[in-house]
């Protein structure tokens, strides 16, 4: 992969939010159903944004295992995403939906992060920032994949095609896995950002593939396009991941020192 | 078409918001009762069930939600559930979650006792507060207890009760608002996860049950989950269900 190894959190967030929103809008508003896969690509970049935030916050050691924070992200994300889309429908401006959902998720994420730090006293300096990013990523992943499956930004379409059919369940859990799994699988003293991030792309691509297969029941051709694009992205990024894993495995061992006396 | 206004939905559904907060607090307190051992328990080096809080909470919560959903369908069908229905539905959800968590603990104990070959023992108390059995001699050196002793088992059952009760209460409250089982259940899962993860940070991943010193941290989790549930509740009651969309 030709990725720059030291990508800052700001760059990843900017890419995740911009590509995520643009993908959702093109897929939902362009009127060309075959472009639905662009929302899935947006979701992949949002997955990467969430995975990078998980990477920063979990390197502090949160004590509960990495999966908990991914579940928290999607718990906050699902409520915000559906509220955003419903709000856009209630005021008859569907365009507002994803932005309202995102803004709400960022606000809830910041408040929950503040609660975790100030009330529960986790005292992790990046907690507020990372939970804000993770909630934003959760809402973009859920909105992106839902829009991709339904091929529309209208809340009634999404409620009928995604929620009532039950496709929301695989989208929910695969979206959460894409955010929590990359760091959970790669963590350790020799964890490198580019390897974790490539893994995030490939997890996001799996979510896109499965959502595309779900979508075949609703929009057969658009769904098939999304599934094939997801499969291709998965193949390319997973090859990249294997390459980086081999690179890091060949780098020798990393000394971590002895355990501190209190931990024995 | 959209005659549903934000303020109107809030004013109409304030009762449901209170219900969602109550449900969220039940879940938050319930998490503190479940003996979560995390990875050390999976290696029989700590007391409790060998997995994380979120997996246990999600497992028991979803079982409770399934039980509650079935009871809702049987009792209320398409009509709106009355208060006595809500009590019955929440009780069914609580029993469903309790069955799940107790079966997990029972089978886990079989594995610890007959598979790993360790006696269940708590490292936090010298004597089991319920049976009075001596614990300290049975804790293997270098570990912090093994398996699920009686007090943890009882505590876990209480945790399942509270978790299932809270989850089904949230579900019923959302059904009151939008009358759509699919949207209600997915939101109930969302509220459930937020209220299960915040307390799990409070106990830092592991707890033995109500006899554990960490249990004294409950008030902090209650405050945090009150605010988080309030937010989730306000947002969740503003989302219309399929019946409100004019049969779309």
Search tags:
A: 264 residues; mainly alpha; 9 helices; globular; B: 248 residues; 8 helices
List the helices and strands and how they pair.
The complex is a heterodimer of chains A (264) and B (248).
Chain A: H1 9-29, H2 37-58, H3 67-90, H4 96-119, H5 127-150, H6 155-163, H7 168-186, H8 193-216, H9 220-249
Helix pairs in contact in A: 1-2, 1-5, 2-5, 2-7, 2-8, 2-9, 3-4, 3-5, 3-7, 4-5, 5-6, 5-7, 5-8, 7-8, 8-9
Chain B: H1 6-12, H2 14-33, H3 38-42, H4 53-75, H5 83-116, H6 150-178, H7 181-202, H8 218-236
Helix pairs in contact in B: 2-6, 2-7, 2-8, 4-5, 4-6, 4-7, 5-6, 6-7, 7-8
Give a verbal description of the structure.
The complex is a heterodimer of chains A (264) and B (248). Chain A contains nine helices and no strands. The longest helix of chain A has 30 residues, at 220-249. With 264 residues, chain A is mainly α. The termini of chain A are far apart. The model of chain A has no long low-confidence stretch (mean pLDDT 86). In chain B, helix 2 (14-33) runs antiparallel to helix 8, helix 4 packs antiparallel against helix 5 and helix 5 runs antiparallel to helix 6.
Q: How would you concisely characterize the structure shown here?
A:
The complex is a heterodimer of chains A (264) and B (248). With 264 residues, chain A is mostly helical.
């Amino acid at each position: 992969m030709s990725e720059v190894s030291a990508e800052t959190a700001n760059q990843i967030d900017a890419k995740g939010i911009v590509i995520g929103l643009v993908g959702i809008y093109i897929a939902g508003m362009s009127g060309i159903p075959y472009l639905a896969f662009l929302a899935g690509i947006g979701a992949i970049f949002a997955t990467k944004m969430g995975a990078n935030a998980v990477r920063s916050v979990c390197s502090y050691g949160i004590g509960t295992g990495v999966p908990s924070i991914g579940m928290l992200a999607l718990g906050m994300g699902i409520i915000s995403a559906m509220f955003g889309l419903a709000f856009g429908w209630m005021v008859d401006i569907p365009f507002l939906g994803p932005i309202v959902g995102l803004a709400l998720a960022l606000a809830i994420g910041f408040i929950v992060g503040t609660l975790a730090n100030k009330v529960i006293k986790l005292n992790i300096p990046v907690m507020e920032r990372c939970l804000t990013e993770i909630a934003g990523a959760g809402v973009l992943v859920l909105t992106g994949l839902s829009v991709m499956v339904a091929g529309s930004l209208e809340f009634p379409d999404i409620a009928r095609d995604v929620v009532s059919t039950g496709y929301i369940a695989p989208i929910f859990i695969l979206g959460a896995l894409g955010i929590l799994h990359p760091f959970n699988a790669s963590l350790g003293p020799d964890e490198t950002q580019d390897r974790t991030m490539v893994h995030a792309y490939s997890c996001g691509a799996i979510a896109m593939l499965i959502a595309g297969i779900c979508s075949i029941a609703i929009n057969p051709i658009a769904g098939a396009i999304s599934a094939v694009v997801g499969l291709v992205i998965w193949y390319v990024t997973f090859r990249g991941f294997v390459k980086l894993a081999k690179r890091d495995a060949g780098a020798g061992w990393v000394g971590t020192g002895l355990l501190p006396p209190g931990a024995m | 078409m959209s005659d549903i206004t934000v303020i109107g939905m809030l004013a109409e559904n304030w009762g449901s918001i209170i219900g969602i907060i109550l449900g969220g607090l039940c879940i938050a307190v319930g998490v503190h009762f479940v003996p979560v051992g995390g990875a050390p328990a999976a290696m029989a080096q700590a007391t409790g069930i060998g997995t994380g809080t979120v997996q246990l909470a999600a497992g028991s919560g979803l079982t409770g939600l399934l039980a509650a959903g079935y009871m809702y369908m049987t009792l209320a069908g398409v009509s709106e559930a009355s208060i006595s229905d809500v009590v019955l539905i929440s009780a069914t959800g609580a029993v469903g979650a309790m069955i799940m968590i107790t079966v997990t603990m029972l089978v886990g104990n079989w594995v610890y006792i007959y598979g790993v070959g360790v006696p269940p023992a708590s490292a936090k108390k010298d004597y089991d507060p319920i049976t009075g059995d001596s614990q300290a001699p049975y804790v293997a050196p270098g570990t912090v207890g093994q398996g699920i002793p009686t007090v943890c088992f009882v505590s876990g059952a209480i945790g399942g009760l509270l978790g299932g009760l809270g989850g089904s209460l949230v579900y019923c409250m959302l059904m009151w608002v939008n009358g759509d089982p699919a949207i209600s259940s997915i939101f109930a899962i969302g509220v459930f996860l937020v209220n299960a993860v915040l307390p799990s940070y409070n106990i830092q991943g592991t707890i033995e049950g109500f006899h554990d010193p960490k249990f004294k941290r409950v008030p902090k989790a209650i405050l945090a989950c009150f605010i988080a549930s309030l937010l989730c509740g306000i947002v969740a009651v503003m989302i219309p269900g399929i019946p409100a969309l004019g049969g779309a």
